[in-house]
Amino acid sequence: MPDTMREMEETKRKLDTSHTRKGLVLLTISYTAIATLIAASILNFLLGLLIAIADLVGIVGGLLIVIGRDSFGRAHSRNTILSVLFFIISIVTITTGKILFGATLVLSQIPNGTITYGNTTSSTVNPHLISYIARMMAAALAGLGIVFLTYALHRKTGRIILSISYITFLTLTILMTALVLQGFEIRSSITLDLSSLQEMRYQYEIIQLLTIIPTLAFAFSFYLALRRINRREIPESNRTENLAPHSENSNRLRPLSSNISK
Predict the structure, then answer these.
(1) Higher per-residue pLDDT: 170 or 112
(2) Would you say 166 and 214 are in contact if contact means Cβ atoms under 8 Å apart?
């Protein structure tokens, strides 16, 4: 019976490790592809559409890591659950933003209403403000989900890379959102300044290109976690297995040493 339980635990550990390894491979490929496509989308919009496919690959990789979480310790298991919660809240946030965007847009068309859209009053409520702020919040939550997904699989270096990548990603997201909202404000003004819009578009594209940096950094962090698994540093049971033969040999030598001393 103990041998059967040990075999079942070993089979479960190997399955979890396989799922996690495959998930990290898919995440590494996905984020590398996304970084490449971000650069390509500046030149060709059609290539930018492939980012959705890369995102889908990343989602599959993330799900595999969640499925194989049990053998990598309590901290990793807890973090993956938190990661899923962050992604769910992110989806709820962006969905709520779209609903509020639609509702505000409808109310803005009501004559003599208290909510107006455009340049009719100083108390204008811009539906796009709600939409883009919701997107920014959703991106921030999704970024936290990415960090927590593999945080416990890393050493100190990998965790620093994850943290810096998230801070950089969040900063760039805020800057892009601010530029977009500023562009809507200029377009809704009485005097339309085309040169300012063109300059803002140029700045937006530069910042969008800069998002390649945290994206590649995330991909590199996934590779570091994958390398730890391939080196059998994690899960912890691999390390104990490697130490087991040495402990058995030492146990065999103890009786001999005791006999010699006698």
Answers:
(1) 170
(2) yes
Name the token pair of 129.
Answer: 């403000």
Residue 65 has pLDDT above 90, yes or no: yes
Three-state SS at 44: coil
The pLDDT, as a whole number, for residue 77 is: 94
Cβ–Cβ under 8 Å, residues 8 and 60: no
Domain boundaries, the chain: 2-232
Distance, in Å, from the CA atom of 68 to the CA atom of 78, rounded to the nearest integer, reads: 12
Q: What is the largest CA-CA distance in the chain?
A: 104
Mean pLDDT for the chain? 81
190: three-class secondary structure by DSSP? coil
Q: How far is 101 from 128, CA to CA, in rounded Å?
A: 7
End-to-end CA distance of the chain: 39
Amino acid letter, residue 172:
L
- Judge whether residue 119 has pLDDT over 70: no
Please name the residues in contact with 126: beta carbons below 8 A apart, sequence gap of 6 or more.
117, 181, 184, 185, 188
Q: Which residues in 11-34 are b (16+ Cβ under 10 Å) and which e?
A: eebeebbebbbbbbbbbbbbbbbb
Token pair of 224, please? 């570091």
Q: How far apart are CA 215 and CA 169, in angstroms?
A: 8
Which of these ranges, 97-106, 151-160, 162-171, 217-226, has the smallest mean pLDDT?
Answer: 97-106
